[in-house]
Design goal:
By secondary structure, the chain is α/β, with parallel strands linked by helices. The protein has two domains: 105 residues, Response regulator (Rossmann fold), CATH 3.40.50; 40 residues. The chain is 39% helix and 12% strand. It contains six helices and five strands, in the order H-E-H-E-H-E-H-E-E-H-H. Helix 5 crosses helix 6. The termini are far apart.
Length: 188
Protein backbone atom coordinates (compact mmCIF):
# COMPACT_ATOMS: atom_id res chain seq x y z
CA UNK A 1 0.00 0.00 0.00
CA UNK A 2 1.30 3.43 -0.90
CA UNK A 3 2.10 5.71 2.09
CA UNK A 4 -0.47 8.36 1.07
CA UNK A 5 -3.16 5.67 0.73
CA UNK A 6 -2.29 4.33 4.18
CA UNK A 7 -2.61 7.84 5.66
CA UNK A 8 -6.06 8.30 4.04
CA UNK A 9 -7.25 4.88 5.23
CA UNK A 10 -6.01 5.51 8.78
CA UNK A 11 -7.67 8.94 8.83
CA UNK A 12 -10.97 7.40 7.66
CA UNK A 13 -10.68 4.69 10.33
CA UNK A 14 -10.24 7.37 12.99
CA UNK A 15 -13.13 9.49 11.74
CA UNK A 16 -15.44 6.46 11.65
CA UNK A 17 -14.30 5.26 15.10
CA UNK A 18 -13.36 1.96 13.48
CA UNK A 19 -12.52 -0.79 15.94
CA UNK A 20 -11.00 -3.85 14.21
CA UNK A 21 -13.42 -6.80 14.52
CA UNK A 22 -12.50 -9.63 16.85
CA UNK A 23 -9.63 -7.73 18.38
CA UNK A 24 -8.32 -9.04 21.67
CA UNK A 25 -7.22 -7.12 24.71
CA UNK A 26 -3.69 -6.19 23.74
CA UNK A 27 -2.86 -2.93 25.43
CA UNK A 28 -3.76 -3.58 29.03
CA UNK A 29 -5.26 -0.08 29.19
CA UNK A 30 -8.73 1.36 29.68
CA UNK A 31 -10.02 4.87 29.09
CA UNK A 32 -11.83 6.74 31.87
CA UNK A 33 -13.80 9.71 30.50
CA UNK A 34 -15.06 12.19 33.12
CA UNK A 35 -16.76 15.57 32.62
CA UNK A 36 -14.41 17.45 34.96
CA UNK A 37 -12.09 17.12 37.91
CA UNK A 38 -13.56 20.01 39.93
CA UNK A 39 -16.67 18.19 41.18
CA UNK A 40 -15.27 15.97 43.97
CA UNK A 41 -17.34 12.94 42.96
CA UNK A 42 -15.60 12.53 39.59
CA UNK A 43 -11.99 12.31 40.84
CA UNK A 44 -13.18 9.96 43.60
CA UNK A 45 -14.88 7.68 41.05
CA UNK A 46 -11.88 7.83 38.72
CA UNK A 47 -9.51 6.98 41.57
CA UNK A 48 -11.65 4.03 42.69
CA UNK A 49 -11.82 2.72 39.12
CA UNK A 50 -8.11 3.22 38.60
CA UNK A 51 -7.39 1.29 41.81
CA UNK A 52 -9.56 -1.62 40.62
CA UNK A 53 -8.02 -1.52 37.14
CA UNK A 54 -4.49 -1.60 38.58
CA UNK A 55 -5.42 -4.59 40.74
CA UNK A 56 -6.47 -6.36 37.51
CA UNK A 57 -3.21 -5.42 35.79
CA UNK A 58 -4.69 -2.62 33.66
CA UNK A 59 -3.45 0.92 33.17
CA UNK A 60 -5.95 3.79 33.09
CA UNK A 61 -5.97 6.75 30.75
CA UNK A 62 -7.90 9.62 32.37
CA UNK A 63 -9.67 12.00 29.99
CA UNK A 64 -11.42 15.12 31.30
CA UNK A 65 -14.02 16.35 28.80
CA UNK A 66 -14.54 19.69 30.56
CA UNK A 67 -14.83 22.30 27.81
CA UNK A 68 -17.47 24.59 26.37
CA UNK A 69 -18.34 21.77 23.94
CA UNK A 70 -18.02 18.50 25.92
CA UNK A 71 -19.46 16.30 23.15
CA UNK A 72 -16.73 17.46 20.78
CA UNK A 73 -13.99 16.82 23.34
CA UNK A 74 -15.50 13.46 24.26
CA UNK A 75 -15.48 12.40 20.59
CA UNK A 76 -11.87 13.59 20.28
CA UNK A 77 -10.87 11.55 23.33
CA UNK A 78 -12.72 8.53 21.95
CA UNK A 79 -10.70 8.85 18.73
CA UNK A 80 -7.48 8.98 20.73
CA UNK A 81 -8.46 5.96 22.84
CA UNK A 82 -9.48 3.95 19.78
CA UNK A 83 -6.13 4.79 18.16
CA UNK A 84 -4.37 3.48 21.26
CA UNK A 85 -6.50 0.31 21.08
CA UNK A 86 -7.62 0.48 24.70
CA UNK A 87 -9.34 -2.62 26.00
CA UNK A 88 -12.44 -0.66 27.02
CA UNK A 89 -13.85 2.74 27.89
CA UNK A 90 -15.77 3.90 30.95
CA UNK A 91 -17.90 7.01 30.43
CA UNK A 92 -18.64 8.74 33.75
CA UNK A 93 -21.52 11.27 33.47
CA UNK A 94 -20.36 12.21 30.01
CA UNK A 95 -22.35 13.06 26.88
CA UNK A 96 -24.74 10.17 27.47
CA UNK A 97 -26.11 12.03 30.52
CA UNK A 98 -27.47 14.72 28.17
CA UNK A 99 -30.92 13.42 27.21
CA UNK A 100 -30.94 15.74 24.19
CA UNK A 101 -27.37 14.94 23.14
CA UNK A 102 -26.03 13.28 20.02
CA UNK A 103 -25.26 9.68 20.94
CA UNK A 104 -24.28 8.35 17.51
CA UNK A 105 -20.66 7.82 18.49
CA UNK A 106 -21.70 5.32 21.20
CA UNK A 107 -23.80 3.40 18.67
CA UNK A 108 -20.83 3.39 16.27
CA UNK A 109 -18.44 2.15 18.95
CA UNK A 110 -20.80 -0.68 19.91
CA UNK A 111 -21.39 -1.70 16.30
CA UNK A 112 -17.63 -1.92 15.82
CA UNK A 113 -17.21 -4.17 18.87
CA UNK A 114 -15.82 -1.69 21.40
CA UNK A 115 -16.35 -2.49 25.06
CA UNK A 116 -17.90 0.43 26.93
CA UNK A 117 -19.60 1.05 30.28
CA UNK A 118 -21.76 4.00 31.33
CA UNK A 119 -21.60 5.36 34.88
CA UNK A 120 -24.28 7.80 36.11
CA UNK A 121 -26.11 8.07 32.81
CA UNK A 122 -27.41 5.87 30.06
CA UNK A 123 -28.88 5.80 26.59
CA UNK A 124 -32.10 3.77 26.59
CA UNK A 125 -31.70 2.63 23.00
CA UNK A 126 -28.27 1.07 23.63
CA UNK A 127 -27.50 -2.25 25.27
CA UNK A 128 -24.54 -1.09 27.37
CA UNK A 129 -23.56 -2.12 30.91
CA UNK A 130 -24.60 0.76 33.15
CA UNK A 131 -23.94 1.72 36.76
CA UNK A 132 -26.19 4.49 37.98
CA UNK A 133 -27.86 6.11 40.95
CA UNK A 134 -31.59 5.77 41.52
CA UNK A 135 -32.15 9.51 41.15
CA UNK A 136 -35.77 9.38 42.35
CA UNK A 137 -34.73 7.61 45.54
CA UNK A 138 -31.85 10.09 46.01
CA UNK A 139 -34.22 13.08 45.68
CA UNK A 140 -36.72 11.48 48.06
CA UNK A 141 -34.07 10.53 50.66
CA UNK A 142 -32.44 13.96 50.60
CA UNK A 143 -35.82 15.68 51.01
CA UNK A 144 -36.87 13.28 53.78
CA UNK A 145 -33.61 14.00 55.62
CA UNK A 146 -34.27 17.76 55.47
CA UNK A 147 -37.85 17.27 56.68
CA UNK A 148 -36.60 15.18 59.61
CA UNK A 149 -34.23 18.02 60.49
CA UNK A 150 -37.26 20.33 60.72
CA UNK A 151 -36.93 22.15 57.41
CA UNK A 152 -40.19 23.03 55.67
CA UNK A 153 -39.21 25.21 52.70
CA UNK A 154 -37.14 22.89 50.55
CA UNK A 155 -35.79 23.61 47.09
CA UNK A 156 -34.01 21.29 44.69
CA UNK A 157 -30.80 22.25 42.94
CA UNK A 158 -30.33 19.49 40.40
CA UNK A 159 -29.00 20.90 37.15
CA UNK A 160 -30.53 21.42 33.72
CA UNK A 161 -33.71 19.45 32.91
CA UNK A 162 -32.10 17.79 29.88
CA UNK A 163 -29.46 16.04 32.00
CA UNK A 164 -30.24 12.52 33.16
CA UNK A 165 -30.18 13.05 36.97
CA UNK A 166 -32.36 16.18 37.14
CA UNK A 167 -35.89 14.94 36.33
CA UNK A 168 -35.54 11.93 38.64
CA UNK A 169 -34.28 13.99 41.57
CA UNK A 170 -37.10 16.48 41.19
CA UNK A 171 -39.75 13.72 40.98
CA UNK A 172 -38.30 11.98 44.02
CA UNK A 173 -38.34 15.18 46.03
CA UNK A 174 -41.93 15.98 45.05
CA UNK A 175 -43.13 12.52 46.06
CA UNK A 176 -41.43 12.52 49.44
CA UNK A 177 -43.81 11.53 52.25
CA UNK A 178 -44.28 14.42 54.65
CA UNK A 179 -43.57 17.11 52.08
CA UNK A 180 -46.07 19.91 52.48
CA UNK A 181 -48.15 20.73 49.46
CA UNK A 182 -47.47 24.15 48.04
CA UNK A 183 -43.68 23.86 48.25
CA UNK A 184 -42.06 23.56 44.89
CA UNK A 185 -38.72 21.91 44.24
CA UNK A 186 -38.62 23.79 40.93
CA UNK A 187 -38.35 27.26 42.48
CA UNK A 188 -34.98 28.62 43.66
Amino acid sequence: MRPETRVRVERAMQELLYVPPGRRAETGAIGLLVPDLVNPIFPALAQAMETRATAKGLASILCSTNTAHPALTEAEYVHMLVERRVDGMIFISCEMADLEGDHRHYRQLISEGARIVFVNGFVESLDVPTVRVDERAAGRLATQHLIELGHRRIGVVAGPEHFFPTPGRRRGSRRCPGRRSGTSPDRP
